[in-house]
Amino acid sequence: MYKNQYNQNGPFGKVRLSRCELSANLLPCDRCYHAGWHQVNRLFHVDRDADETGSYYVVYTVRGKGKFRLNGKLYETEAGTIGIMAPWMSHEYWAADGEPWEFYFMHVMGDNCNNIFQYIIDHYGYSVKVSEGAMRLISKKMESLIRMEYIYFKFEIFATQTISDILLEILKDVNEVYDDEIYSANELVNDVISYIYDHYNSSVTLKEMSAKLYVSEEHMIRIFKKEIGMTPYHFLKRFRLKKACELLTYSQKSTKEVAQAVGYSSAGGFIAQFKQEYQTTPVEYRQSHTVYR
């Protein structure tokens, strides 16, 4: 069934829909049987059961923020983010509080589409980020799909090509974005470790460290803990105590001198942390490990 483009505006916001609903069986290619653009507010809320047609519902957020729930699990989508709602999952989606949520959407189906979205879901999840360049291309393609006059087979071919362009752009860009993120995370972790190695024997605070590395303290802690399994502070403490063990074993420095050499301002704090980590005091450790008699 085909129908003219219309604006179904209301208290919830504005809507523009594609000029037609494509036949689900016309071509043996990826197909879009519904597409459009929304700019909605907190009154907007859609709740759907699993899709019997087998189509993916895909949301490309341009501005603002939206939320969607898949089989009870909550996801967020914001500018530069694509939300993927798989056909076998019940879902609901709505505008988050604050500024209006503006997004393009498509109901898409087909073998190529299924393979691409299943790959993205398996590797990156149901909410993925893409670059600004990819979002501009997707927005442009979606606008052309929405605005094109319907001329039977010509439109079907154009729609299929447009969908293929969008899907391949998403696949290519998502891989690049997440590869860059992984590289950036590894780079940040290496920078934090290098900073600790160079400054462990002086006063080190996470605030100063993050400022030197040009990242927020919260971001630094989150990435480091995700990649290493402990916070930068915990890593620093363990490294200091490891260095203290070396000094206790291979030098004749006093406990106070060892504490100062590895960055502790007080011998009492050093002794307490050493005992907590190794279940023995620095003096007792030296007695059982020293090479000097």
From TrEMBL:
Q: What is this protein called?
A: Helix-turn-helix transcriptional regulator
Q: Which UniProt keywords apply?
A: DNA-binding, Transcription, Transcription regulation
Top-rank taxon of the source lineage equals Bacteria
HTH araC/xylS-type domain location: 190-288
The signal peptide, as residue positions, is: none
List the source organism: Fumia xinanensis
Q: Fetch the Pfam families from UniProt.
A: AraC_binding (PF02311), HTH_18 (PF12833)
Q: Which GO terms describe its molecular function?
A: DNA-binding transcription factor activity; sequence-specific DNA binding
**PANTHER family in alphabetical order:** ARAC-FAMILY TRANSCRIPTIONAL REGULATOR (PTHR43280), HTH-TYPE TRANSCRIPTIONAL REGULATOR EXSA (PTHR43280:SF2)
